[in-house]
């Protein structure tokens, strides 16, 4: 087959770009997914913020975004209940008594309560067997009132995370960690049923603050299954030019310094210093580490990957930790669960 | 949980790197896959080539590599036949009479014959229905003598490529296009049963010519499901720092100029010019376009994406088109099929 020459190809795509045929906002709508469960749009408006100046970045208010999403979801759940006398259900599997896992599950359960999602937590002992946890997954897979299943990670090392996550019904995989969902996230022209919540939160934050993604240079530090990897895939799906930096990267600051959008997810406090950043960059800090803090009432505080005091002088927008992407991530879990229930009941706001 | 500080984290990983605990050669062996079907190692030796000089790159001999792999596979198939009176089987589904598809299928069938793989081609008319092709897939899924299934792409536009490829049994998905295989390719710490052939060919060529991948900057131009996307994921799995350039990337030459390894897969002749390249770069040209050529007997010739005459003066190693990655890609299809059969029969050379 004869192809157009180099110049024509590149020029044609540029024209598409200039004409804004595809923008970050409408990208998902253009996808040819038969069931675009991720296409729910909670974005009633773009948050206005001060233009970039050389002195201080605008801090992204994750709680504000999360509350707005939760309010929309609460209305939707209320309408579902009135319309078909059903509510979305989330099943959580919690193994052991890790303090951080217990805290995360508590937060997720509270968020479910707030929007009217029914949640159940199956608690298994630290020394439970693979068969026991697989049975718990299977039970939730078959339970009609459960539309989303979440296995709280990390699992004790004697359990196969891979086998357990693969056992979750793809249509209830609201964490988006099933390889079918991850594969469809990666593949050009495909849409997963569910996208991992932290990655959706990253895009949501960018949308809410009017950050154009298409054609922008995005650098993701870290490639974890939960956050870094799916975020790089999702940014690429939104037509960013994505580079992934990891522990084997030499001079990572040379690469991050080119970024228009920088995402960090390695949970290494103060990894990203001011000189790693291009002036005006948008910084999404997804790291979360508990560090000692003698000024805090319990002697600890949560911190991100970015040296905030330095970054705020270089970036145009920045997410704080805590209060940045975290709350939006929780609201995305709720959103995925509501979408799963809507699909299961074949219900829409209009139905 | 308390984490080590920035310096410690980065230093620890560097130490791992310096100690060569992980090298490109042994990376796959370290993976914890239950069934590492992709771990077959056809690499008896590294091809020696002249050191990089500023005048001319060494041309990678894809045919030489492919013949070596095919010889190894032929021996393996012969041993399988002697040992269990079985041979690997490849089922090909061909829809319509596209000249390029007919040609590709002919080449694949001939390659199968050469190593002793039994191949069958199911030919369906251009106007066949979705149900007819799904029935053909299902028939091959259940046929015991068929261990690999290949649906020749592209399909006519009235057929859903997604639904048809998803119907292929994951354990016979020798093209590696099933979302489960693609998801496991993408996910950190997972291994797909099969990796797309062109991507495996890229890594094979790099290994054969002794190109270290770990920690290197790799730039992939293009993000097609067949080649660009899985190649970027596979390079990342081998710990390269990967950037993906596509049609929405501004000034792609600024990014490609940083690459230690450049892969191009957009089938746009002469897209990659000399000034896009860093001196000493390794160039893997995966583009393939039929262009007019009055000097050729049939008036056409196949060309890649890279302006070869310019690139050969900048690169250290370069794949020609034709005769570069193409023949190795075919041999990777054979390799995947042999691995599928070995798994199906639970047979190894030692058994």
Describe the structure.
- Two copies of one chain form a homodimer.
- By secondary structure, chain A is an alpha/beta fold.
- Chain A has twelve helices and eleven strands.
- In chain A, α4 links the parallel β2 and β3.
- In chain A, α3 runs parallel beside α12.
- The longest helix of chain A is centred in the N-terminal third of the chain and has 23 residues.
- Chain A is globular, with a radius of gyration of 21 Å.
- The N terminus of chain A is likely disordered.
List the helices and strands and how they pair.
2 copies of one chain form a homodimer.
Chain A: H1 6-18, H2 27-30, E1 58-59, H3 62-84, E2 89-95, H4 99-115, E3 118-124, H5 130-142, E4 148-151, H6 161-167, H7 179-186, H8 197-208, E5 217-221, H9 228-237, E6 241-245, H10 252-256, E7 261-264, E8 282-285, E9 289-292, E10 300-303, H11 308-311, E11 317-318, H12 325-344
Parallel strand pairs in A: 1-11, 2-3, 2-4, 5-6, 5-7, 7-8, 8-11
Antiparallel strand pairs in A: 9-10
Q: Please give the alpha-carbon distance between the first and last residues of chain A.
A: 47 Å
Q: Which structural class matches the secondary elements of chain A?
A: alpha/beta
Helix content of chain A: 25-40%
Major sheet: arrangement of strands of chain A:
1-11-8-7-5-6
Shape of chain A: globular
Output the radius of gyration of chain A.
21 Å
Series of secondary-structure elements of chain A, N-terminal to C-terminal: HHEHEHEHEHHHEHEHEEEEHEH
């Amino acid at each position: 087959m004869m192809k157009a020459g180099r110049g024509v190809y590149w020029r044609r795509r540029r024209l598409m770009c200039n004409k804004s045929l595809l923008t970050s906002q409408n990208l998902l709508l253009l996808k040819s997914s038969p069931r675009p469960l991720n296409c729910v749009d909670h974005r009633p408006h773009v948050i206005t913020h001060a233009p970039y100046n050389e002195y201080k970045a605008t801090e992204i208010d994750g709680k504000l975004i999360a509350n707005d999403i939760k309010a929309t979801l609460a209305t939707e759940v209320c309408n579902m209940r009135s319309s078909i006398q059903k509510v979305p259900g989330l099943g959580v599997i919690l193994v052991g008594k890790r303090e951080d896992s217990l805290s995360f599950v508590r937060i997720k359960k509270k968020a479910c309560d707030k929007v009217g999602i029914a949640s159940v937590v199956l608690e298994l002992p630290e020394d439970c067997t693979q068969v026991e946890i697989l049975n718990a997954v299977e039970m939730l897979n078959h339970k009609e009132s459960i539309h989303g299943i979440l296995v709280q990670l990390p699992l004790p090392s004697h359990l196969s995370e891979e086998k357990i996550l693969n056992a979750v019904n793809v249509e209830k995989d609201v964490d988006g960690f099933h390889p079918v969902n991850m594969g469809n996230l990666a593949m050009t022209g495909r849409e997963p049923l569910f996208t991992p919540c932290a990655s959706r939160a990253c895009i949501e934050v960018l949308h809410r603050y009017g950050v154009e993604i298409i054609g922008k240079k995005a650098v993701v530090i870290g490639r974890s299954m939960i956050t870094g990897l799916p975020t790089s895939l999702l940014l690429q799906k939104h037509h960013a030019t994505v580079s992934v930096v990891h522990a084997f990267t030499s001079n990572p600051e040379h690469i991050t310094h080119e970024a228009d959008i920088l995402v960090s997810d390695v949970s290494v406090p103060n990894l990203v210093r001011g000189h790693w950043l291009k002036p005006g960059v948008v910084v999404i800090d997804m790291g979360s580490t508990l560090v000692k803090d003698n000024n805090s009432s319990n002697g600890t505080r949560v911190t991100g990957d970015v040296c905030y005091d330095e970054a705020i002088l270089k970036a145009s927008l920045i997410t704080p930790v805590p209060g940045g992407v975290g709350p939006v991530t929780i609201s995305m879990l709720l959103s995925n669960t509501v979408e799963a229930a809507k699909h299961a009941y074949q219900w829409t706001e209009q139905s």
